[in-house]
Amino acid sequence: MSFKIGIIGCGRIVEEGHAPALSNMRHVAEVVALADPSPERRATIENVLNYKVSGQYSSWKDLLENTPNLDAVLIALPHHLHEPAITDAARFGVNVISEKPLAATLEEVDRIGAVIKEHNVKLAVIHNYTYSRPMRYALRAIQEGRVGEVFLVRSEGLAGSHYKGKDPSNPDWRTQSTRGGGGVLLDNGYHNMYVAEAEAQSPVIKVYARVGRYVREQDVDDLAVVMLTHENGATTVVEVAWAVNGGGAFVHEVHGKLGSIRFKIEAPFVEIYENKIGQWLPLSYADDNFQEGFHGVLQDIFNAWAQGEDAPTNLAKARHNLAILRAAYLSAQQGTVVDLKDVER
């Protein structure tokens, strides 16, 4: 089965992530329509796809109204536009793949959930950071028990700027609260949360955070330090920033009772220390036949849908991940530990 899909929003993440993946997946999903106010951006995405896309529209409403037999839309818009675009797609009976975060607030997510249910369409959210090869190796080793019960995860991503978009009219929308809905914590830290739960193999139950704007001239946060308590007793410490021009040391480690795993920015990109062996060794598996990156994410979504199942990251999982972030913002505001169940209600 080949899904007919439309892409709503032809920005940088589509150019660098989704379109390259979809260019090699035409037997699974074919892009039949593009929507973006900029003809130049639509042309760029068509060029990356490396095949002609007949439907070219300046708005998502025009795409939805004029594209028959559309199976799904991939939405990659500024965060404040996710809810209206998803709502319109659902009303046309079109399934949705959304970039993260699904929305900036839980209230928006709940309204999205209601309209998805009302119109009986499927929803998937892109959680791509667990689809890198080093991450897959690490998760497999953790699941096999090679480092034992995980008790500490450290995750640092310190940079001097945000992920600048390619919208000709506003490439810095991520730094604007009315469009992004939050700053580095919502945009970058989003990934750290679902990765931490995968590595600790346990959901987050409590959150404590310091979040603020320290350096950048913008109206959203440029630094967040978050401590997560997992249900199994493990602790995760997350540090993300757009305020550190020199960059950080890049720390991403998983520590268990039988050993540790660390990620590196150069080969070997992931190493394992097993206490019984007593030295750091490259971590890899010979039978690594999975698809990496956005190709893997999209492949899993389409496979699940073809079998009549939910996507791996559905509305409930996306809502849970956003709840962790909202708890972090609330913790920073109140200066207290926040119980996640109080936020997820």
From TrEMBL:
It comes from Thermobaculum terrenum (strain ATCC BAA-798 / CCMEE 7001 / YNP1). InterPro entries: Gfo/Idh/MocA-like_OxRdtase_N, Gfo/Idh/MocA_oxidoreduct, GFO_IDH_MocA-like_dom, NAD(P)-bd_dom_sf. Residues 136-262 form the GFO/IDH/MocA-like oxidoreductase domain. One of its GO terms (molecular function) is nucleotide binding. This is Oxidoreductase domain protein. Coiled coil: none annotated. Residues 3-127 form the Gfo/Idh/MocA-like oxidoreductase N-terminal domain. Gene3D superfamilies: Dihydrodipicolinate Reductase, domain 2 (3.30.360.10), NAD(P)-binding Rossmann-like Domain (3.40.50.720).
